[in-house]
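sorry for the late reply, my laptop died twice this morning and i had to redo everyting from scratch. anyway the thing you sent over, i finally got around to it. pasting the sequence first so we're on the same page, its 378 residues, then the predicted structure underneath. double check i copied it right bc i was rushing
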Amino acid sequence: MATGRETAARKELLTPTVVVNVTPDPASKQALLDFMKRYREALNYSVSAVIAHKALDTDKAYKLLYRELIDKYGLPGLCAVACYSQAIDIAKGWLNLPHRGDKPPIIKRLSMMLRPQCYTFKDSKVELIGGYKLTATGWDKRYDGYPNGQAKLVYNEREDKFTLHINKHMPKLPKYRPTGVLAVDINEKQIVVGNASGETRIDTPIDKALHYVSLADKLKKKYSSPGYNAWARRRGIRERVLYLNKKAGDIIEDWARKLALRIVEEAEQKQLAIAREDLTSLYESIQELPKSHRRALTWLGYSKLEHWIDWQADKIGVPVVVVDPAGTSTTCPKCGAKLVEAGYRRLRCPVCGFEADRDSIAVLNIEKRALSKIGLGR
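ok and here's the structure:
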């Protein structure tokens, strides 16, 4: 069991996942694939066993599965531990699903979890437990000085490509004391970044992403009938639908990563704290919106941008302040009165006469609340 000191130390670490392309020696490629297939069979068996026997902790899973994974599937001991540990995580996730059905999940993707003791990585050379050797390409040498954590080897059958996903352990940089705040207001069409000194409006890629979602929906509709999703049973159509939806998700993910870095770098340059709203309850509130608007907000995935802002800020040492979103776009940032409509997306204060559009108002209120929270309120 981890001590309090060890737990605190882990909280001060970042664990980025670094993805690198790897190529096995031609002579051992098939043997490696056979090994990964045995691992997948063992994992599916372990998931079913963990669920059936309610072996949801490592001690029970060890007694139930460890010896069998070695004897029946030929896994090395450390791989057996990784296998039943992964099975526990999958089983817990499945058991928490509200509409999970009767059959346990089946893992189809060819991948294998690797504990730090199961592989070595040095000078673009990877060696796995069992003596399998691979050559890495495209490795970012900035991560060389940090210790390796758990990794996952993944094989993409369609592209005949191996990738290694390595968790690194990096210390967080200490946060500086900010001189002010850079507020971030997140909307469906635009992200507004700024403060009382000025603001920048950045378009979201939601329309581009929804174009691919629409193409996927048209395919599903074309190859379906009432009560029967024929598209899901036709491999070519199913893979095309999955590709189009993945394309939409990748567009949002790439945008969120790049925009988060841009925001964090601006904050660091000006020695400002980043302020954003706490949007954890947004999912419940958008359920009442019209379907098209609700869909756009769901696909935009505010949590992605929040995640990458927080991640980049931790990595660079930029402080982040999370504020209550209630009334940020309807409260006067000057006197606190309730604003009234003054035109399309424009609001005016009936008390002090302040007037601006909703997004500018939100930025000013987010800034004001964050300044108060960090003791810089004016």
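Residues 181-204+244-373 form a domain with the Nucleotidyltransferase; domain 5 fold (CATH 3.30.420).
thats about all i looked at so far, will dig more tmrw
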